[in-house]
Amino acid sequence: METRNVDDGTLWGEGVCTLCNATEFLSFFEAKGIPAQDGVLWPTHEEAMNAPRGNISLSLCLNCGYVGNRLFQPDLLRFVGYNVSLEHSPLYQNFIKTLASRLIERYDLREKVILEVGCGNGFFLKTICAAGKNKGVGFDPSYVDAGGSGVSAQEIRFIKDFYSERYAQYHGDLVCCRQVIDHLGSPKAFVKMIRRLMGDRRDAVAYFEVPNPERRFQQLVPWNVGYEHGSWFFPESFRTLFELSGFDVRDVAACHDGEYLGIEAVLAPTSNLARGSARRTAVLRLAEDLTTLSHRFRETVSEWEERLRKMKRENTRAIPWGAGERGIGFLSSLNIQELMPFIVDINPGRIGKYLPGTGQKVVPPEFLTEYKPDLIIVTNPTYEAEIREQARTLGVSSDFLVL
Predict the structure, then answer these.
(1) CB under 8 Å to 368, separation ≥6 — which residues?
(2) Is the pLDDT of residue 132 over 90?
C-alpha cells in the first residue's frame, strides 16, 4: 500500500486519504447540484431556490476505510443561522437523557466540567450538567438560548465562536463533540487539536458522535447522503482517526436506533494504530458492499420517478414530514417542487422558512387538519411511530409512506 506524508489540510488533498495518507481508493457514488446545507433554511422562496449547491463524489480509502467526498468545499457551509435542533421530539429527548446518564455513570461525571464543541442550542450540554451537577462550557457560532435547562446561567458559559487553540484555557473532564467533524475540511487536524488542548489529563474523556453510515448507506437511498457530510466514518475508520490522533479508544457503537455512531476515548501517550488485519478485512468487505451502491441508488430514483408520475396523474395530495437532511435530500434528488409545495416539521425555528433547492414551505403539524393530505411521507424512519401518533392526535387520517 503506497503512502505519502502530507499535510492534514483537506479531504483527499493531493489525492491521498485525509486519515492515513494512503493513495488506493474506490470511487462509488456521485451526485451533482445537491443543496450545500440542510441546517440553514431560507426566509423567502426566491432565496431558497438560489441557495448554494455542491457536488458529491464519494471515495473509500482501501487502507483505513475512511469515506470522503472528493469534491467537498467546506467554504460552502455556513453556521450562522444554522438550526437542526431535534429536542422537540420526545424520542430524541429520551436519547439525550439516556446518553447523558450513561456517560455520567461510566466516567463518574459528577460535579465536573463538561466542554462541548459545536453545542448547538446547548440542549445536550444543559442536560448532562443538570443530571450530574456539572459545570459546562459550550462553543458554537450559531448558539441561541433555548431556555428551560434547569441549570443556572452561572453553571454554563456559552461562547458564540468556533473552538480553536485561542481557547486553550478552557478544559473539560469530558470533551464532547456531536455531529460536527463530518462537516470539516480536515477532521484529523481538528481531532489532533482537541487532543493537544486536552494536555496530559489522563482522567479526561472524549465523546464524539457522527451520522452512522452503516444505517445511511444500507438503506440504499440517495437522499441519505447529504453534501454537508464531507466525511463518513464507519466504525473502523472512526477508531483509526482517534488512534492516529493520540487517543486510546474505549468504545465505538451505534446509538439512537442506529442513527448515529458514538466513540468514547481517553488520552494515549503516543499515537498508535492497532488492529491492522481486522481493519483490512472490514475494509475489503465494505468495498464489496459499496460497489453495488450507485446502481441501487439509480434504481431507487427510477422507481420514485414513476411513482411521482402516477401521483401527478391521480392528483394525489402528498406532503413530506421532516424538514431535515433526508427531507431536503429526497425533494432535491427528485427535483420535486409544485407536486409537494409544503413540508411538515415540529421545530419552531424552521417553520415558515423555505427548503434550499426546491422551495417547499415548512409548516407545523396543525397545518394538516386543513390541508387534508392523501399521503404523508415520513422522511426519517426513526421517527415514524412518533409522527403517526401526532397525526392521529390531530385527527388526520392520511395514508403513510416511509422513505
Answers:
(1) 319, 344, 376, 391, 394, 396, 398
(2) yes
